[in-house]
Every structure is written in structure tokens, then in C-alpha cells.
């Protein structure tokens, strides 16, 4: 796959995705962005955003969130999938950020994934949201990348590396954004494949 072809395909995908807010976008504080991304795993963005607005309205900072009662957090985030685990994760993540990082979110992959509830995808989505060169590989990125033959692997870490090798750094923090918005615009697998089969033909 030529780099120029992959970039043209990526930009075509960008044009086809509807304008919408994703869970990682448009929060006032960085800790809110990180907590929202943790909560968004396996949950629709619309649900995550609604829940996060309630959560952040009640708990104004990391200190308040870390000291909140587990059952009170759970009550708010119950619409989120795996809310019981995520309650523990966001509470522990808040505590760790205060104790080890003075309440500041590290802009470093290894330090981010040392936090409770933060995996590689979450860390990379956070970094890309803050303009770092990072690629968050979720189900949308995985599926579309394989379908368009941008990558040969199906393991997220290997997909991330192949995409880094294929695309100029300028596009790294845009890949997840464009592909997720496209994936959420065309929820039917059949329709998605129909469009991707046309995009494949771009030279």
C-alpha cells in the first residue's frame, strides 16, 4: 500500500463521516477527558457524554471524585456498560493521579497505562485528543484498517505500529477520529462494506 493512496482513502472517509461529538471531545479539563475515555469503552458515545455531564457536575475535581462513595459513583454511571468495574477504575485512577502526579495527567504513554483502568487504546485516544502523535486502535479502526488492507495484522498493538509505518505523523492523531465518526455514521455492516469497497478503488 502506497502512503499517498492510504492518505486519499483516509480523507475520503473523513468526508463521509457525520459531524458528531465523541466521548473524548470538548471537555474543559484534561482529567474529565481521561475519565470520559475510560467510561466510553464498550459504551455508545451519546450515553457516555450524558453520564459524564452528570458525573462532572456532581464531582468538580479529581479530589472530590477520589473521595466519593463507590455507591454514589455507581448510581450515576449505571447506564455505562461494566459500570461496577469502571466505578473502581475511575475512583482509583483519580487517587493515583493525585498521589503520584499531583493531579496532572501525564502526557506519556507508559505513565498513562500505569493508571488504573487505562489501557493502550485509552492512553492513545487521550494523547491524540491533546495533539500528540498517537493512534488509538478501537474496533472501528481495527475493522476499517483491515478491510482497506492498510494493515495485515488483527492485534491492536500491531495494527497501531503498521498504521504508524503507513501514514505520515501528521495524520496519526486524526485516524481514530475520522474512522470512528465514519463507523458511527454507517452502523449497518452491509452499508459500511458497500462504501469501503468503493474507497478501496481510490488510487
SSE layout and pairings?
Layout: H1 3-16, H2 30-40, H3 45-58, H4 62-67, H5 70-77, H6 83-101, H7 109-112, H8 120-129, H9 139-147, H10 156-166, H11 169-185, H12 189-200
Helix pairs in contact: 1-11, 2-3, 2-6, 2-8, 5-6, 8-11
Describe the structure.
It is a single chain. The chain is mostly helical and 203 residues long. It folds into two domains: 3-19 and 135-200, Endonuclease Iii, domain 2, CATH 1.10.1670; 30-129, Orthogonal Bundle (Endonuclease III, domain 1). 67% of the residues lie in helices and 0% in strands. It has helices at residues 3-16, 30-40, 45-58, 62-67, 70-77, 83-101, 109-112, 120-129, 139-147, 156-166, 169-185, 189-200.
What does the overall shape look like? Answer: globular
Number of domains: 2
Radius of gyration: 18 Å
Tell me the name of the CATH class of the largest domain.
Answer: Mainly Alpha
Mind summarizing the main beta sheet? Answer: none
Give a short overview.
This protein is an all-alpha fold. It is 67% helix and 0% strand.
